[in-house]
Design brief:
Layout lengths: L4 H15 L12 H19 L3 E8 L2 E12 L4 E2 L7 E2 L5 H13 L27 H5 L12 E2 L7 H7 L17 H15 L3 H10 L15 H4 L18 E2 L10 E2 L1 H12 L3 E2 L2 E2 L3 H8 L17 E2 L8 E7 L2 E8 L4 E7 L5 E2 L2 E2 H17 L14 H8 L1 E5 L8 H11 L3 E5 L5 E3 L11 E7 L2 E4 L5 E7 L2 E7 L8 E2 L7 H32 L7 H29 L7 H30 L4 H23 L10
Helix pairs in contact: 1-2, 1-11, 2-11, 3-6, 3-7, 13-14, 14-15, 14-17, 15-16, 15-17, 16-17
C-alpha cells in the first residue's frame, strides 16, 4: 500500500527504471558501460525517494568482478561516501551461506554426515519431539521444524559467545516433523555453527576466518564481535531513514552469530560469489571441491506447496526462466541480497544501510532490493514470452475454497508469543486470500515485495495459480477437500502459509478479545465513578451483603484483568532487551487470580439473576462475566498462562 507522495514517487522511479530500454522480450547487451548507466539512472533517485542513505553493488561474471560501485553515504553527517572496496556493512542472513559452506567443508573431510542425527555432534540434547531426528540437511534447508525465537539485544557489550548462548538458552520448541514444513530458523544456523566448532576444534568465527575468509583474501570481513578498531572505523553507519539520526548499534546474542553476524565489503564478498560460481574455486584457492559445490547448488528440499525450493543453504529464486540461487539478509537496518545465476556464471550483490520509508508493514529497502534484482533480469535476461494457459473451469469453486486467513509457517512455540503473533498477524502481517466474482483470487500487498500492492491470480491448473499481468506463480496444498497451505514463487522457500482452524484464527480471536477488554476497562472505570456519584448524592445501595460482596469482587476481578492485559503489553514491548522471565511469571500469577475472579463473577451473575434486579444490571453483569471468561479462555488457548516461557 502506497501511503504518501514520497511512496508514489519511489514506485514511479522503480517502474521507469524497470522499463528503460526494454521493449517486449528484447535484451539489452550486458556491458560495463550499459550496466553502469542503468544503475546510475536507477539507484541514486531510488535512494532519495526511499530515504535510504547509501548502497553498494558488485556484479561478477566469468570469474571476475564485472562492476562494483557505491552510491550515497556511509556517514550522512560527515558526507562519507559508500565505497565498495572499503565500506564495511552488515549482511545479516547472507552470513548463513558461510556457515553452510563451512559445514560442506567438514562433510568433504569426513567429519560430518549430512544425514546423521545432530545430537551425535552436540554436547547437549535437542529433545526428541518426533520419531524422526533432525539432521544437518534439515538445518541447511530450514526444515528442522523449530519454532521461531526472539533475538535478545545487548547494550552493555556483554553478549555471550555461541557455546554459552546455546547452553544457557532453552532449545526452541519443535512444532513440525523434520523435513516436512519450511520454517525459517536462525537457531538452526546457530546449531550448525556450533557443530562446526565442535568437530573442528575452532571457534566458529576463527574457523570461517581460517578456512574461508583468509583463503579468499576477504581481509575486511569477520564474524568476530566486537569488531576490531581497524574494521570499526570503516563500518557504515546504519539508519532507520537516511534523513534522520543514525541508529544506535544493537548487539544481538550470541556474539559471532553464524546466522547473521558477518560484516564485509562489496569487494570482499565478490570473491565468495566467484568461488561458488567457479565450483568452489577462486583463482588458485579451493574452498569447496566441485562435488560439494554442486551439491550445495542443487535443489534439495521442495515439499508441496513450495514452488522454487531450497538447495543446501541457498534459496532457489528463479526468475525469467533462469535458475537463480541466493540469500537475502537483514540486521539492524542493514539490508543485503546475494544472487547467483550458475548457468550464466554471473552474480549480483547489493547492500543498503537504511530501512527507508515504511511501505505497509515492510520498508522500502525490501522493495528496492527486489525491484533492482527484477529490473536487472528484465533488462539483460528478459523472460521468453510463452502462450498463457487458459483459466480452468474450476476457478470459481476453487477460489471459494482458497479464501480465508493463513499463518506464515515460521510460527512460535506453545508459549505466550503465540498471542503476540496473533495480534501481529491481525494488525500488520495479515495474510489472507480473497475470492473475487470473476473466479480470480487476491493476496495482500504485504506479500508483494515489488510494489507492496495486492496481487490478483487466476487458476491455470488444479489449485495452481498464475499472477494476472505477471510471471509469479501460486500453488496450494489441498487435503481432504480443504486448502491446507499455499506458497508463492516470489516468496522465499523457507516459508509457506498454513491455514489455521477457525477457532484459532486471528480474525475471530482478536476482535472478541478486544471487545472483552473494552467491557472490562469500562467496568474498571465505572466502579469508582459510581461509588463517588452515589456518595456525592447520598444514594444508598439496595443490595444485600452477599450481593454487594459479589459485585465488589467482580469489579476487583475486572480491574485485575485490565492490569493483567496492560502488563502483557508492557512486557512484550521490552522482550528483546532483557530476561523478563520473573516478571512474566508474576503477570501469569495475576492471570491465575483472574481465573478465580471469573469464578466469582459467575457466582455474582447467578446472584444478580436470582434477585431479579433491573434488566440493565443483569445484562451488564453477564457482559462482565463473559468478558472475564474470554480473557481466561484466551490466556490458556494461546499460552499467556503456561509453564512454557521458552521464547
Amino acid at each position: 500500500m502506497i501511503k504518501s507522495p514520497l511512496h508514489h514517487a519511489f514506485y514511479v522511479v522503480v517502474c521507469a527504471a524497470l522499463m528503460t530500454g526494454i521493449t517486449d522480450a528484447s535484451a539489452a547487451q550486458l556491458t560495463q558501460r550499459d550496466l553502469e548507466a542503468w544503475l546510475d539512472g536507477f539507484i541514486p533517485y531510488a535512494l532519495q525517494q526511499a530515504d535510504i542513505a547509501g548502497a553498494v553493488i558488485v556484479v561478477v561474471k566469468d570469474g571476475h568482478v564485472f562492476l562494483k560501485k557505491g552510491y550515497g553515504y556511509a556517514g550522512v553527517a560527515r558526507r562519507l561516501p559508500m565505497d565498495p572496496d572499503r565500506t564495511i556493512i552488515g549482511v545479516g542472513s547472507v552470513s548463513k551461506l558461510f556457515a553452510w559452506t563451512a559445514v560442506l567443508q567438514l562433510v568433504e573431510s569426513g567429519k560430518l554426515d549430512l544425514d546423521r542425527d545432530i545430537n551425535a555432534y552436540l554436547d547437549f540434547r535437542v529433545p526428541s519431539t518426533f520419531p524422526k531426528p533432525i539432521t544437518l540437511r534439515d538445518l541447511m534447508t530450514h526444515s528442522a521444524g523449530f519454532a521461531g525465537r526472539e533475538f535478545r539485544q545487548v547494550s552493555n557489550g556483554t553478549a555471550r559467545g555461541l557455546e554459552a548462548y546455546l547452553k544457557g538458552t532453552p532449545v526452541p520448541d519443535r512444532i513440525y516433523e523434520p523435513g516436512t514444513v519450511p520454517a525459517y530458523s536462525n537457531y538452526g544456523a546457530m546449531l550448525a555453527g556450533y557443530i562446526v566448532e565442535r568437530v573442528s576444534g575452532e571457534a566458529f568465527p576463527d574457523y570461517v576466518e581460517r578456512h574461508i575468509l583468509r583463503p579468499l583474501k576477504m581481509d575486511h570481513s569477520t564474524f568476530h564481535r566486537p569488531l576490531s578498531a581497524e574494521l570499526q572505523k570503516e563500518l557504515s553507519q546504519n539508519y532507520r531513514v537516511g534523513s534522520e539520526q543514525a541508529n544506535a548499534p544493537e548487539n544481538e546474542e550470541p556474539a559471532g552469530d553464524p546466522s547473521g553476524h558477518l560484516v564485509t565489503t562489496a569487494d570482499d564478498i565478490s570473491r565468495f560469489m566467484i568461488a561458488h560460481l567457479q565450483q568452489g574455486r577462486y583463482e588458485n584457492v579451493e574452498i569447496l571441491q566441485p562435488t560439494a559445490a554442486t551439491a550445495m547448488h542443487t535443489l534439495a528440499f521442495k515439499p508441496p506447496p513450495v514452488i522454487n525450493g531450497m538447495t543446501l543453504g541457498f534459496f532457489r529464486m528463479d526468475r525469467n526462466q533462469h535458475t537463480i540461487i541466493g540469500h537475502p539478509g537483514d540486521i539492524a537496518s542493514f539490508h543485503a541480497d546475494l544472487e547467483l545465476l550458475p548457468d550464466d556464471d554471473l552474480g549480483v550483490f547489493v547492500a543498503l544501510n537504511s530501512d527507508g520509508l515504511d511501505v505497509g508493514p515492510l520498508t522500502a529497502s525490501n522493495s528496492m532490493r527486489f525491484s533492482l534484482a527484477q529490473g536487472f533480469m528484465d533488462r539483460y535476461y528478459p523472460a521468453v514470452k510463452t502462450v498463457e494457459p487458459a483459466t480452468t473451469a474450476t476457478a470459481k469453486s476453487h477460489a471459494q475454497l482458497a479464501a480465508g486467513e493463513y499463518w506464515v509457517s515460521q510460527q512460535v512455540g506453545p508459549n505466550f508469543m503465540q498471542a503476540v503473533w496473533l495480534f501481529a498477524e491481525y494488525f500488520s502481517l495479515k495474510v489472507s486470500i480473497r475470492a473475487n466474482d470473476d473466479g480470480t483470487i487476491t493476496t495482500p500487498g504485504f506479500l508483494n515485495f515489488l510494489t507492496g500492492r495486492p496481487q490478483s491470480w487466476r487458476e491455470v491448473g488444479p489449485f495452481s495459480w498464475q499472477e494476472v499481468g505477471g510471471e509469479s506463480k501460486l500453488q496450494m496444498l489441498v487435503q481432504g477437500g480443504r486448502v491446507k497451505a499455499f506458497a508463492k514463487s516470489d516468496v522465499l522457500a523457507a516459508f509457506d502459509f498454513q491455514r489455521p482452524s477457525t477457532l484459532r484464527s486471528a480474525g475471530l480471536n482478536v476482535p472478541v478479545l478486544l471487545g472483552a477488554a473494552t467491557i472490562l476497562l469500562l467496568a474498571a472505570i465505572m466502579w469508582p465513578v459510581t461509588f463517588f456519584v452515589r456518595r456525592h448524592y447520598g444514594i444508598s445501595s439496595t443490595l444485600s451483603k452477599e450481593e454487594l460482596l459479589g459485585w465488589r469482587l467482580t469489579n476487583v476481578a475486572a480491574v485485575l484483568a485490565v492490569v493483567y492485559g496492560v502488563s502483557w503489553v508492557l512486557l512484550v514491548s521490552a522482550l528483546s532487551k532483557a530476561n523478563l522471565d520473573p516478571w512474566i511469571r508474576l503477570v501469569q500469577c495475576i492471570g491465575l487470580v483472574c481465573v478465580a475472579g471469573t469464578a466469582v463473577s459467575v457466582w455474582n451473575t447467578w446472584l444478580t439473576l436470582k434477585s431479579r434486579r433491573s434488566i440493565w444490571a443483569s445484562i451488564w453483569t453477564i457482559l462482565i462475566t463473559l468478558a472475564l471468561i474470554e480473557v481466561v479462555g484466551f490466556s490458556f488457548a494461546f499460552h499467556l498462562i503456561s509453564w512454557n516461557v521458552n521464547y
